[in-house]
Amino acid sequence: MALDVFELPCFVASRLDGRALEARITIAAQAAPGQRALIYIHPYPPLGGQFRNNVVHELSSRFDSSVGVSVAFNLRGAGASEGRTSWTGTSEQEDLRSILDMLHHQLLQLHPARHSAADLRSVLIQMQARGFLHDDVDVARLDGVPLPSIASTLLCGYSYGSVISSAIAADEYPELGIDYAHISFPYSVVWALALQKRGWYLQRIASTVASAALAFAAGPECMGRHIPRTLFIAGTADTFTATPAYDRWWAQLRGKALDALNVARPELSVSAAECAVDKALTTVSVHNADHGWMRRESEVSDAIEAWWWHTQSPGDCSEEVDAEWAVVPRRYN
């Protein structure tokens, strides 16, 4: 269902060092509790990556009117954000956690060096006049922009942005219900983007997938709590990572998750174990699409919509494959 949204260009502070981060935040009109949120994390800043790119624009155009809050922001060193790109992505992780903190606290605080108290009051008055704040709210008493409560959050990282989003453990923000969409993850060149941290990032992803598979395999034992799911979308003509490299890596992720299930739940049938892994990990290969996705952007949003909007139920993998919810690796022609 499309919602009326309030778009707010602003600057927020990084929790690491207070640097001003440029952001564009959309908020749904008086959204009900338990809304969804989308956070877009852009490609590598030294190569021109920032939130004003074709993929982020497509995703924003497709999804922003369907969620309670969406955030497109520039990591340090990108666009009008302060600072410079780090060698390992560690500083950028804190930039992203600053946005997640905002959703956790349900409060957007404008950067004090970039926005005055009058700026905040003007924003709040506009929001109230358009129905984004109840009439009985005393805007003079607010020290930030109220946000709706969020129960499901998609970290939507593109290229380098997917490396940064992969570092966030879902259990850091359990109430936000984090899932991961990794678009054109730069698997073969992570070493160049994060130096000695390459192994750490890849292990984080493997652990996320394996832990989720174990939770899905538990079936009813895990009902009622969010289990993070991971989606990879890549073109078969990707500029930086060849399809065979992606396929080998994705097979390794599946294999490690199955090994973890075999150790922790040896009584599981093969089909039940595979079902659990399929719920935790989905991979989509798009024929002849390259790393930039020019004129192919809608295929990215199509894949995310089919996965995140239509496969939310955890189902039950404790015995046999649940045909309704089992998701298999797919290729788009």
List the helices and strands and how they pair.
Blueprint (H helix, E strand, L loop, with lengths): L4 E9 L6 E9 L6 E7 L12 H10 L5 E5 L16 H16 L1 E2 L8 H13 L15 E2 L3 E9 L1 H7 L11 E6 L6 H5 L3 H20 L12 E6 L7 H22 L5 H11 E6 L10 H13 L20 E3 L1
Parallel strand pairs: 3-4, 3-7, 7-8, 8-9, 9-10, 10-11
Antiparallel strand pairs: 1-2, 2-4, 5-6
Helix pairs in contact: 1-9, 6-7, 6-8, 7-8
Structural summary, described in words:
With 333 residues, the protein is an alpha/beta fold. 35% of the residues lie in helices and 19% in strands. It has helices at residues 54-63, 90-105, 117-129, 160-166, 190-194, 198-217, 243-264, 270-280, 297-309, and strands spanning 5-13, 20-28, 35-41, 69-73, 107-108, 145-146, 150-158, 178-183, 230-235, 281-286, 330-332. It has a 9-stranded mixed beta sheet, sandwiched between helices. Strand 10 (281-286), helix 9 and strand 11 form a beta-alpha-beta unit.
Average pLDDT confidence is 92
Rg to the nearest angstrom? 20 Å
Shape summary? globular
Strand percentage lies at 15-25%
- Which secondary-structure class do the elements indicate? alpha/beta
Low-confidence region ranges: 319-333
> Total number of β-strand segments?
11
The separation of the N and C termini measures 29 Å
Largest sheet: 9 strands, mixed
Strand order of the biggest β-sheet: 1-2-4-3-7-8-9-10-11
State the helical fraction.
Answer: 25-40%
Q: What order do the SSEs take from the amino end to the carboxyl end, as H and E? A: EEEHEHEHEEHEHHEHHEHE
Q: Number of DSSP helices?
A: 9
